[in-house]
Amino acid sequence: MIEINPNEIVVVKSETSKINTVDFSNLVFGRTFTDHMFVCDFEDGTWQTPKVMPYQAMTIEPSARVFHYGQAVFEGMKAYKDDDGKIFLFRPDQNCDRINKSSARLAMPDFPENYFFKGLETLLKLDSEWIKPGVGNSLYLRPFVIATEPAISASPAATYRFIIICSPAKAYYNEPVRVLFAEKYSRSADGGVGFAKAAGNYAAQFYPTSLAQKRGYQQIIWTDASSHQYLEEAGTMNIFFRINNKLVTAPNNDRILDGVTRKSVIQLAEDMNIECDVKRVSVEEIKTAAKDGSLKEIFGAGTAAVISPVSAFEHSGDVFEIEQIEDSYASLFKEKLLRIQHNLSEDKHGWRYEVK
Ligand SMILES: Cc1ncc(COP(=O)(O)O)c(C=O)c1O
C-alpha cells in the first residue's frame, strides 16, 4: 500500500451550519446532509491530499466515465453517540475492506486505510452535533468512489474521486415487510459483481422491485440466477430464516454482499447458543416449513434497518403469512446490536470503534 501521511488532510470549515434548519424528529432517510464532506482525488496514479470541506455540489464533466460505464462503488455505515457524548463506529474496518474489494472488482484503485479512518474521524468531529444520542438515532455515512476521468471509451478511468457524505437518521421503527421470492429476474450472477457494493447492482433491482411493489411486496428476496431455487439475499439486507429454534442463512458467494450485520448476527447467535446453519436455503424447504408450521421467522439484516422482520412471502402464486411472535429472534438480535452500537453493553468482540 502507498504510504500517505494522514496528518496532511486539509480542513476547510463551513462558515455557517444548517443544523438549526433541520427537524430531527421528522427526518426522512437519506434526504438531509451535514455541513461537511470528505473528498480525495486519485490523479497521476496516486491519491492526492484529502480535504474535508463544506458539503456542496460538484462539477464533473458529462464525459466522466462514471456516467457511461458505471465505475462506482459505495459503502453504508453509521456513527452513534452515547449519553456521555462519545462517538462510535461499528466495525468500520469491515467497511474499509469491503469498499476496497468492491473497487478491485470494478478495476478501481484501493483507498488507503489510514485515509479512510482519518477522513471519517475528521468529518465526525466537525459534524458531531449532527449525531444525536438515543438508541436508534445515528448518522448514516456514505463513502463512495466514482470514476471522474472525462473520456467516453469503455475502459477503466485514470482519475477517481473518493467522497464521504453524512446523513442524520432517526430511530428506525420498521413495520414488518412482505417479500416476493424472485423467479424471473436476478440481481447478480456467478462470476459477476453481486458481492461488490457496485452502484449498478442497485439500479438493476429497481425495475423488478417496482413490479413487486405494485403487487404489495416491498422487497424481493433474490434467488440464485441459474435455477431460482435457492434464496440468497434481499435488496439491501442479508436474510435469515428461523426453522423451529434454528437459524439458517445462505453462505457468502460471488453473488451475495458480505454483510457486516449478517456476520455480527451469526457471531451473536453463537454467543447465545442459538444454532445457526450457514448453508444453501432452498425455496422448497422454506415453503414446506411454512406449511408444517416450523417456519417461525424470516428477517433481514443490514446497516440501515439493523433487523427487519418479514410478515409474508409469495412464491409461484403461493402466499404465506408469517405470524409475528413475541420474543422473536429478530427483536433479540436488534436489541443486542443496538446496545453494542450505542455503548450500552459489553463489547466482547471489540466491534465498537471510538472516534476520539
Ligand atoms: C445487497 C445488500 N446486501 C446486504 C446488505 C447488508 O450489509 P450490511 O450489514 O453490511 O449493511 C446491504 C447493505 O449494505 C446490501 O446492499
Describe the structure.
There is one protein chain. By secondary structure, the protein is an alpha+beta fold. The protein has two domains: 164 residues, D-amino Acid Aminotransferase, Chain A, domain 1 (2-Layer Sandwich); 165 residues, D-amino Acid Aminotransferase, Chain A, domain 2. 24% of the residues lie in helices and 29% in strands. It has seven helices and 20 strands. The strands form two sheets. Strands 1, 2, 3, 4, 5, 6, 7, 8, 9 and 20 form a ten-stranded mixed sheet that branches. Strands 10, 11, 12, 13, 14, 15, 16, 17, 18 and 19 form a ten-stranded mixed sheet that branches. A hairpin with a 5-residue loop joins strand 6 and strand 7. The model has no long low-confidence stretch (mean pLDDT 96). The chain binds pyridoxal-5'-phosphate (PLP).
Bound molecules: pyridoxal-5'-phosphate
Strand-residue fraction?
25-35%
Poorly predicted ranges? none
**Tertiary shape:** globular
Keywords summarizing the entry:
single chain; 356 residues; alpha+beta; D-amino Acid Aminotransferase, Chain A, domain 2; 10-stranded mixed β-sheet; 7 helices; globular; binds pyridoxal-5'-phosphate
